[in-house]
Automatic annotation (TrEMBL):
The keyword Transmembrane does not apply. InterPro entries: ADH-like_C, ADH-like_N, ADH_Zn_CS, CAD-like, ER. Its cofactor is Zn(2+). This is Enoyl reductase (ER) domain-containing protein.
Length: 352
């Protein structure tokens, strides 16, 4: 069979600027799902990768790992999807299938995961992401988009949503009334607020400025809002939170946030700081506090967050843009000027 030639938008160097790029997809194997990309969310990780801030970028790089598409072709062994179904792909498109993490259905922690883009596929070629017209993905790494969910709403759930959901799931059904902190109100943070609220937690947003106060309290339904630079406000909130979901994509002083936690409270890092973070051991010891990390979520959890979203009738706040706006959109993301997630209308951008 002939390999399909597709058009994506790629970064060529560490300027991170995206422009049209033509490449071929692999042939459809028996386990593969081929889909036309409808929408793709824009994540801060894309920016880290496009600019080689994590020092592992191979160019040309077609980003995009919050991909929603419509199935156009199925491999001979694929039973769980039909042509025209809406499907989703998140951050990973492969794993070894044999290690303990894979066997325990937490394949995101497999040492041999294949990232949706900037990864190396089994055939030795670079993987390319959802800022492109068509994708071919192994069915194990494809989820079903519930019918009730609009595709552009579903897109951010596939990375940002499951990143907030996976660590918060441990608190689901807790008998205690939990006090949650969401640090950084961006793409991941705003979904974190909605998920924590839907789980019944009392939610405090901790933000770097006052700019998002009204939106956080009125649009997202947060219960309280703290400005991290307001020392008096931070002091009053000391020892009040059971956990903090830390989504900040930059170096930030952990000693400002650890005092907010109660005894046995947990700071969960999901934001990727490009340089090491520092903390004082005393801040953990006195209060038996914990710092943990969490990486996206499993395929099972990705399906779960989609169902959770549909069942609870939640709505994320997205700004849908066309591909010719993508560089501008990343520039605005960097300036913290998006409420709260850009979603690319890929199909509507007529890439071909
Ligand atoms: P985003 O939309 O840019 O949001 C980040 C938020 O953090 C901003 O809205 C801002 O909120 C705050 N912030 C930004 N710069 C800051 C600074 N210098 N100091 C303090 N606060 C700052 O980014 P995102 O897409 O949500 O991603 C957040 C981070 O999570 C990124 O590092 C991304 O790579 C990472 N991530 C990790 C995973 C994972 O699996 N662990 C998955 C997805 C994303 P305020 O205006 O409220 O301060
Ligand atoms: Zn594995």
């Amino acid at each position: 069979m002939e390999r399909r030639r597709v058009i994506g938008w790629a970064a060529r160097d560490s300027s991170g600027l995206l422009s049209p790029y033509s490449f071929t997809l692999r042939e459809t194997g028996p386990e593969d799902v081929v889909f036309k990309v409808l929408y793709c969310g824009m994540d801060h990780t894309d920016l880290h990768q496009m600019r080689n801030e994590i020092h592992m970028t191979n160019y040309p790089l077609v980003p995009g790992h919050e991909v929603v598409g419509e199935v156009v072709e199925l491999g001979s062994e694929v039973r769980k999807f039909r042509v025209k179904d809406n499907v989703g792909v998140g951050c990973i498109v492969g794993s070894c299938g044999e290690c303990l993490s894979c066997k325990s259905n937490i394949e995101q922690y497999c040492n041999n995961i294949i990232l949706t883009y900037n990864g190396t596929y089994k055939d030795g070629r670079s993987t390319q992401g959802g800022f492109s017209s068509l994708m071919v993905v192994d069915q194990k790494f494809v989820v079903r988009i519930p019918e009730k969910l609009a595709p552009e709403q579903a897109a951010p759930l596939l990375c940002a949503g499951v990143t907030a959901y996976s660590p918060l799931k441990q608190f689901k059904g807790s008998k205690k009334a939990l006090n949650a902190g969401i640090l950084g109100l961006g793409g991941v943070g705003h979904l974190g607020v909605l998920i924590a609220k839907a789980m019944g937690h009392h939610v405090t947003v901790i933000s770097s400025s006052d700019k998002k106060r009204v939106e956080a309290l009125e649009h997202l339904g947060a219960d309280a809002f703290l400005v991290s630079t307001n020392a008096a406000e931070m002091e009053r909130a000391a020892n009040s939170l059971d956990y903090i979901l830390d989504t900040v994509p930059a170096v930030h002083p952990l000693q400002s946030y650890l005092p907010l936690l109660k005894v046995e409270g947990q700071l969960i890092l999901v934001g990727v700081a490009p340089q090491p973070l520092h903390f004082s051991s005393v801040d953990l010891i006195l209060g038996k506090k914990m710092i943990s990390g969490s990486f996206i979520g499993s395929m099972e959890e990705t399906q779960e967050i989609l169902e959770f979203w549909a069942e609870k009738g939640l709505t994320s706040m997205v700004e849908v843009v066309k591909m010719n706006y993508v560089n501008k959109a990343f520039e605005r993301m960097e300036r913290n000027d998006v409420r709260y997630r850009f979603v690319l209308d890929v199909a509507g951008s007529n890439l071909e």
